[in-house]
Automatic annotation (TrEMBL):
Signal peptide bounds: none
Pfam name, any one: Cupin_2
Protein name, UniProt field: Cupin type-2 domain-containing protein
Entry coiled-coil feature ranges: none
Database matches in InterPro entries: Cupin_2 (IPR013096), QDO-like (IPR053146), RmlC-like_jellyroll (IPR014710), RmlC_Cupin_sf (IPR011051)
Length: 185
């Protein structure tokens, strides 16, 4: 039996709206959103962890680089479970690197470090965790993108308007860097 809750984000969710309540979510049954060509599934967020961390997956097709961005107060990890994902990262001294991550590989991005990624194989999947003094940013996906009820990738990419990108940083500790250039390939 799966319990559903009403939250401030959704009429029905399998994630309880407040901390201190144990729960179990079956595969793929978290809160889902489409952003760009990806399906993001949230399993735990700020409400459940008192803003200590979040836990989500990102599944996507082979495609374009997700826009460069940084999190001023949040650390982020990438753990690849399927396919291949190219992670682009720039450290605080401006040194850039890129690395192809395959199943079992882990990438760590400290706060304030520009980063981006690109799915290199269809149906690649990343497990993401973010934590830091800035709180968590998991609700950014459905705010910038579109909440999704079904499983699967979006039929058409969900690309926000430039004005919508500007609304995100204040609330979700995500700052996009539209002029950022990757010197790596």
């Amino acid at each position: 039996m799966t319990i559903e809750y009403a939250t401030r984000y959704r009429q029905t969710s399998r994630i309880p709206a407040e901390p201190g309540k144990p729960y179990v979510i079956e595969k793929g049954e978290g809160d889902r959103a489409h952003l760009f060509g990806d399906l993001i599934t949230i399993y735990a967020g700020g409400e459940q962890t008192e803003n200590a961390f979040n836990f989500f997956t990102v599944e996507g097709p082979k495609g374009n680089v997700i826009p460069a961005h940084l999190h001023p107060d949040t650390y982020e990890v990438f753990y690849v479970t399927q396919g291949a994902v190219r992670l682009f990262v720039e450290d605080l001294e401006g040194e850039q690197q890129e690395k192809l991550l395959t199943p079992g590989d882990f990438g760590f991005v400290p706060k304030n470090c520009p980063h981006a990624y690109r799915m290199e194989r269809h149906h690649s999947q990343v497990v993401g965790v973010a934590a830091g003094p800035g709180g968590t940013f998991e609700r950014f996906f459905e705010t910038l993108g579109a909440p999704a009820d079904g499983l699967g990738l979006p039929r058409e990419p969900v690309v926000p308007t430039p004005g919508k990108f500007a609304t995100v940083p204040e609330q979700y500790d995500v700052r996009f860097l539209p002029e950022h250039q990757w010197r790596t390939r």
